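Much of what follows relies on a compact textual record of a protein's fold. Each token is a code from a learned vocabulary of local backbone shapes. The record below shows the convention in full.
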Amino acid sequence: VTYTATSGDAITSSSPRSSVKVRSLVGPGADAGVAQGLCVNGQGDSRHSIGFVSGFNNNIRFDGAFSHTLDLGWSTNCIRGVYCTGSNAIKIYAGRIGGGFSSSAIDPESPENGVSIAADCANIEIHGNIEYCRRSATAIGINDHGVGTRFVGYTESCAAYCIYAAGGDGYFDVLAGGTNILTEQAGYYAGDTNTINLQKDRKSVV
């Protein structure tokens, strides 16, 4: 699907027990307007699948959404890869949220925020890889202000923070990956009541 408008949502899902499956969803560019790739709202029991999504202000948005599941292959070239506002009990399974491999400090085709969770969200679960969020020098992999956020996955090479956990009661289990995360240049911030568990990369240990 190629979406050329510079406002509105390419796909909106508001019905419970619905299913949206798209192999590729490409928008007009992250700075073209407020266009959103897939916007999910309302009561849930829905499972949506997006293979590749790129080129929207918000590639995926959960807005007043409850108990939905997202299977996501790759989300890139956007302001926010996944944006949650006013939503609870969302489960996200992602292959990659972020840019492709790059040695550049700034990559304007990557996300500014890989996942952004607003303060009015609770119990958002993310399982996946967050990497190369480098749209600007302030880009963040997971920008969390919600309550009870859970993350399990690999993080790497985001410009400012791989994880900025400013919400409450969040738990972020950062798995070892392509580089030793304990020496990763991008930062990790855990506000009060949040926990970030950095697992040591042992792949080179005999």
The two ends are 47 Å apart (CA to CA). The chain is about 0% helix and 50% strand. The chain has a mean pLDDT of 91. Residues 164 and 189 are 5 Å apart (CA to CA).
